[in-house]
Structure formats: structure tokens, C-alpha cells
Amino acid sequence: MTDVARDAAPAAVDSTGMSYLQTLPRRVVTLYLPLAIFVFVLLFPFYWMGITTFKPNDEIYNFSANNPFWIRNPTLANVEKLLFRTEYPEWLLNTMVVAISATCLSIFASVLAAYAITRLRFRGAETTGLLIFLAYLVPPSILFIPLATIVYGMGIYDTNWALILTYPTFLIPFCTWLMMGYFKTIPYELEECALIDGATRLQILWKITLPLSVPGLISAGIFAFTLSWNEFIYALAFISSSENKTVPVGVLTQLVEGDVYHWGALMAGALFGSLPVAVFYSFFVDYYVASMTGAVKE
Amino acid sequence: MSQGVIDGGLKPPAFPALARALDNRLVLSAIFMFPALSILLVFLTYPLGLGVWMGFTDARVGRPGEFIGLENYVSLFQDSVFLLSVFNTLVYTAIATVLKFGLGLWLALLLNNALPFKAIIRAVVLLPYIVPTVLSAIAFWWIYDPQFSIVSWALKQFGLIDRYIDFLGEPWNARWSVIVANVWRGIPFVAICLLAGLQTISPSLYEAAALDGANAWQRFRHVTVPMLMPILSVVLTFSVLFTFTDFQLIYAITRGGPLNSTHLMATLAFQRAIPGGQMGEGAAIAVAMIPFLVAATLFSYYGLQRRKWQQGESND
Hints:
The complex is a heterodimer of chains A (298) and B (316). With 298 residues, chain A is mainly α. Helices cover 72% and strands 0% of the residues of chain A. Chain A has two domains: 2-76, no CATH class; 86-297, MetI-like fold (Orthogonal Bundle). In chain A, helix 5 (88-120) runs antiparallel to helix 6. Chain B has helices spanning 2-7, 16-23, 25-54, 71-77, 80-111, 118-125, 127-130, 133-143, 150-157, 171-198, 203-211, 216-244, 248-253, 265-273, 279-288, 290-311.
């Protein structure tokens, strides 16, 4: 192991500087063991979620007869209940519609705003940028009460529009900030060349800046999509009828019936509400990490 | 409209006046800022002001309410449930933040080593942050079940406890339980952000320190911590801000119980305003969070200032 580390050292100079000084037993105790515990703890709730989903009821509520960490007779009864005897498919559709529309709306508004702030540099652009960043620091928890009255007044209470129009309040500040950072990395000379060649500002944005910022757009899009998928408080406050709910709200409010918790079905709901976003995330991990750390670093 | 201008290419534009107007920086800036600013003004700035105003009224669901001055705030400060929720929020934020940063920094330091399958481990570690909080909170709710808790079962098998822990039935047990769930969800965010910071620290600094005779702790204290401070302060602000205003985790696991011992200000505001119908009082509770948020933001501002000073003038 030490040999491998030493051989790898020149290639991965970024972080492996002095790791060849550590012996294997030392690495096991100080590195691999704590890391294994971290990964175990971080993943265990998902394992427990998954395994409860496919357990029959007598195994869920009886730990003494069989090992609770494994399933003896896997069953799809809980999944069947979720998919065919609840309104889960409608919640899924609502969540998709809301998340995609809110993301597209936010990206559209953010790209224009970020371009204006970083490239057109109108008077007060710096201040506007700072104000938009401050808007990101306003949490939904202090906005939802007045927003509820506004949404009600606009007549969009209990519709998808209530969410599509309110989610951008936290998506636009984030995406604008991210795109501003990205636009700053594109050399201004490219735009100057285009100006000399007679291109209009719109042509520059459409044919030069945007194609160069595709990775930034993807990062912002992924992040905005997962944020809208996970949003809870607005969806809870602005939607009342079951068929208009989103997955997180629907699973929590509609699957809990009275005092009896059907843990199998609840876990199935939690698993199937998490899977789409987890699968989506797995395709774009690097973009996701880039947008998360990029927003913090800026 | 804009499509016509774009497709016009270098041919004379169809509407010369329009094309000229669109090349004017000010006109174009106004058009470009319009969508973002109008959404933010209507759905963020206006509600923020409206919320402050509603805090001074006795608004109820479906009734605008009359101005009643500071009455809401006066009654809140005599309301033991509200005071308890402030206490809970501070305890929740303080303990969860300390744990998140301690453990998150440790995880970031571990991940900063040369590891096999590093990319996969990093992706897996971030999973708790990706998944909808409410849904993972439901999993925690099930893990904390008084009769069928897997944690109690495992501890009992090992002979560490005699009877099942009543995770959500006792005030302090419930507080610790929701804090653990919050920390579980927050660690990945802190760790991945700090890892990004760690990766920018040049290994030659550690080598130089080691040559000067610094031991591992000194290298951490005098190289890692100062270099990480700028990003740490920003991540800290975000973390404090979003822990302080947390809503979904509490709402999913305890709904504020038992005996209001896990009610945070956000959950209390929701309970009073939406199911309770007392919009004015709920708004006042939400507004009462603002001073704390401003304090956290100022903290971030000074953190950023410090960053500029550390990295010299060239930093933008």
C-alpha cells in the first residue's frame, strides 16, 4: 500500500503530498475505519428505508423471529399499494411539472440578469448583484405566511402555478449568483471580437456566451431541479387538495392515516420519492458538486 | 421578436429602430433585468414587507386585519410556548452547527486523502443532502419508533440498554433525536464544501511546515485552519441560517412535540398561522427570526472581508 501511495504521489500532487509517510496499519486506523463508519451512518437510513419497503408486515413488526437487517420473504405489496392505491403517480407528475417549469423559468431569468450584471455593467450593477445575493439569504420560513395571502389573492392557491411562481424566489438568486461567477470566467475579448464583427448584443449572448457556459447552465439547472424537488414548506402551505400535492408533501400528509402508521407504505413512499432525484443526481454528480461549491466560493 | 433580430445575422435588420434600441446598453439591461427583478420584487421583497406589516395586525385567514401596534409582540413575549420555541431554536442551532462542523471537517479531511474509488465515495456521501429532507426525516421517524426502533433493538442485542429508548417521547430525548437527524443531513454539505476548500491548499505548505518541525496538530492548526477560514465562514453562515429557520425536519418527525419541546420558531409560526388561522401572530413569530438572520449575515460579511485581506488585492 505504501508503495502504491508513493507511486501515485507524483501523479496526484494535489492532495497526496506526504501520505507516503504513513504506514498501512496507521492508515487503516486513522483513515479507512472512520471513513467506513461515516459511510455506514450516512447510508444506513436509506438501507433501512429500502429494506422496510420490501418486507411483509409480519417481518416489519417482529424482530425476534428473524434478523431485522434482512428480508426472508420479500414482497411488493407496499410498492403496489403506493403505486396503485394512493395518488402517488399524480404527486410525481405534479412534482415533475413544478420542478421543471420552475427550473426553466429561473434559468431563463437568471441568465439574462447575470449577463446584464456582469457584461452590460449598467449603473448600479454591482449593487444589484449584491442585493440578489442577499435575496438568497432570505429563508422561505419567514416568507410563507405573507406569500400565502398573496397566492390566495392572485387566485392561484391550490394550483401548480402557486409553486411554479414562488419557487423562483430562492432559485433565481442562487442561479444568478452561479451564472455571474461563470460568465466572469469567459474572456471578454471573445465578445469584443464579435462586436467588431458586427454582432448585436443578443447575438453575442446567444451564439458566444451561452454555448461557452453550457457546463454552468447544467450545474445551475441540476441544482435548481433538486431544490425544487425537495421543497416542502411552500408546497405544504399553498396546496390543499390531495391531487395537487407534490411527492414530499403527499407522502407525509396522505400516507399517515390516523394513529396507525403503515410503515411499509410510508417507507415505500419515501424510497420512491427519493429515487428519481437520486438517479438524476447520479448522472450529474460532478456538475452538482461544482454548483454547490461554486456558490460557496464566489 | 428577439428571434428576428438574432436570425437577421449581418443582413440589415428588419426593424432598424428596434435593433438600435436593443444595442443600447441601458435599454438592453432593463429588458434583461426585468424577468428576474419582477419575480423577486413581487414574490420576495413585497412579501417580506407584507410580513413585517402583518406582524403588526390581527390578520386571520381570509380577513386582512387591523393595525394593532406591538400587541402581537407583547403577547408573544408573555407566551411561554413562544419563549420555549426561541430556546429550542437556539439550542438546536448551536448544538447541530457545532456537531455538523466538527464531523463535517473531519470527513472532509478524510476525503482529502488519496483513496481508492474516491469519486464514488464522494458521490455516496452527498446522498443525504440530495434526497428530499422530509422523506429522509420519515425514515428517521421510523428509526426512532418507540416499539420497533432498530437502534434500540441493536443496542439491546449488544446488552447496552435494558429497555427500548423512548426517542420522541421525552423532551430532551426528542431534542437530541431531531438534532441527530439534522446533523446527519448537514454533514455532507459541510464536508463537500470544506473539501473543495482543502483541495486548494498547496501540499508544499504542509511539507514546509513539516520540515520546520511542525507535528500533525500544528500543521492542522496553523496551516489548514487559517487557509480554510474564508470558505469556512461562508459555509458556517449558510448552515446557521438554514438550521435556524429549519421547518421540514421537525414538522415531519415530531410536529413540535412532546410538550412543545422541539417546536422551533418556524414550526410554531406555521402552526399558529396556517392550521391555527392567526396569520398576524404567525407573521410576528417569523419576523422575530429576522434579527438573528441579520446577525448571521453580518458574520458572513466580515468573513468575506477577511478573505480579501488574506489573499491580497488581486482577489475579485
